[in-house]
Hints:
- The complex is a heterodimer.
- Chain A is mainly α.
- Chain A is built from 7 helices and 2 strands.
- Chain A has a two-stranded antiparallel sheet with strand order 1-2.
- By secondary structure, chain B is α+β, with helices and mostly antiparallel strands.
Amino acid sequence: MKYCPRCGVELEEQVDRCVLCGQLAVRTRPATADAAGLAYPKTPAGDVSGVAHGSDVEIGADAFARVVRDSLSEAERRRVAVELLAVSFGSALLVTVPIDLFTHGAFTWSKFSSLGVVSTWLFLSIPLILAGAPWLQYAVLAPYLILAAFLLAVFRNDLGSFLRYGFPVTIAVDALAASTLAIVAAFRRKGLNAVAVFLCGLAVLSLFVEGAIDLNASGALSLDWSVIVAIALVPVAGLLFHLHYRVVDQASLRKLFRL
Amino acid sequence: MKRSAFSSHRTERRDASRLSDPYYRLDNSAILTAAIADRSGPFVFRLTCTLDHTVDLGALGFAMARLAPRFPCLNVRMGHGVFWHYLDPLRRAPVPEAERVWPAEPMPYRRNQPLFRVMAYGRRIACEFHHAITDGTGAMAYLRALVCDYFVQKGVELDSEELTRMGIAHADEPVSIEECEDAYARYFTHPLPPPPPRPQAFQLPGYRRHEGYRETVGSTPLAAIHSQARSRGTSITGFIAAVYLAALQDVYEAMPPGPRRRASRLLSVQIPVNLRTRYPSRSVRNFTLLASATLDLGLGHWNFDEILARVHHELGLGVSNKELARQLGRNVAGERNALGRPLFLPLKSLVLRRINAVMGVGTYSGSVSNLGQVTLPEAVASRVLSIGFLPARSAAACANLGVISWRDTLYLSIGSLAMKRDLERLVFTRLASLGLEFSVACNEAFERERP
Lengths: 259, 451
């Protein structure tokens, strides 16, 4: 039988040093082996803190995942939010459209405000209605974005601007949203790293938007403001990646920003 | 039906199994302790179990590994969010550590470091817990399960049905949802009128030590102290709280006139109340509120019978459902305050420290915490020599009392950061003068104290 002279515990036969304090194991039973009551070691365990590290027993995530939380379920909270949004935005429509009809006898400015109200409602409600299915949300909102740009051009009787600016920019927004979603979906822990990817996407988008404007307006590419935006955003994204992977232990936004 | 702060809990539950990164919110008590814990008040308490043989490190480590999935809400580390702390589950099981030179040392929040530690020394297994994860009852649930599983590894046959009957968790049973619940949130429904503000209380005079923690333990036959308390018409907890108050009164009266005039004349002892006995919960997290016993020395000298009567009645009032309900209402409503919630965590910690200084630690002279009788299956109990409980350090309250009963012995521990041992001496001499035979031991040898 082997013992640790400092900790007084029994050790396994194959070890040469105590796994607790790093002292050399001994075969003769030390006085500390009978330590009890209020006896404490005279010295600290020594600089062997690396000796006792975690075992290889993995703990299932579902054990703690069923903890009682709040009174309303997530689905109920979402339903309430969707109802509130529908009532608020519906009220806006019910006010603006009749006023326009009453004062002008036709749809004039209310076409634009209605498009804005409906678009905002959709972009706020669809993530709540289709929660947990990001690609479904994308399948609804991405085509709608192009449709909204098209309707805007139709309302202004300016289909040319849609083809020159609206269409390429909305396609770029959709494509970048798809790439950002795909990258974020691949992350095991979605925290500040997701924000960083979003910022990088924003930097690329600004370059594309300025490119589209330059080519259509002057026929030549001369990037200026978008480069400044990218130079500002990319280091911030880098800092967020650093924070996520090195500082806050890959904590999710849900944990970090819980109110 | 009339609503009550302790009415039945709402049954809607959010299924967290979808979360890619699950975590625990801190319970109401843990929010405060996590924010204010520091070297002078680390909120780390200690339970010990002395065996009839030298601890087998392999068996202990194996038992801990088996029990880690069984106690998921204990095997967590402290995480810092933007607005709140949170508890992050650890994927690796904890392992035994070397005993430290002093008990109940601070437990800094480290990455991948659980908020409890199990230490082996000779024949003793010691578990130290941060109050952010559990209270005495939850910690005792873990220690009982650990000791039983340790003996299973050593070849002792234990019937799992018997363990379940005795309320001892074992590795082969599934985790209950209720064990990880925030019971404060479960039983809080709406705010109530808060308890009246408490004045600042007398604090033990003298210098505090910056290193170490003196642990003085007295043991006495349980039957003797039980009959003594019963004959005086009170409980063991009430009896010991009265002894503590009497000792504090002796300290106050022995002070020189100048400091005595400046000191508060209100003696106040806080007594944690285990709410599980009143509001059904199997939570192994915190579920405790505080009752208090007070003496106003402005009214003159109190004899022991007067102190006993006052403590008994005050405790009776303090643990009534309505008193506890409004204490819970104040605490949880404070946590849910719309102005407080969006405060950034460092700022929130500052505010909580201030609140604790004014409404918390400053209003108590000390505490008496009784974990009650510990039971284990006979095959294990016959090989366990003693069980110990040491309350957490506190520089302000200075000396705290912990009480625990094992088989036919009661252990009374005094954990103190005071340089002088006056309070320990006064407590045990008072008990001796009441006819109770205490065998007293201390973790540090007596050295002549400076005047």
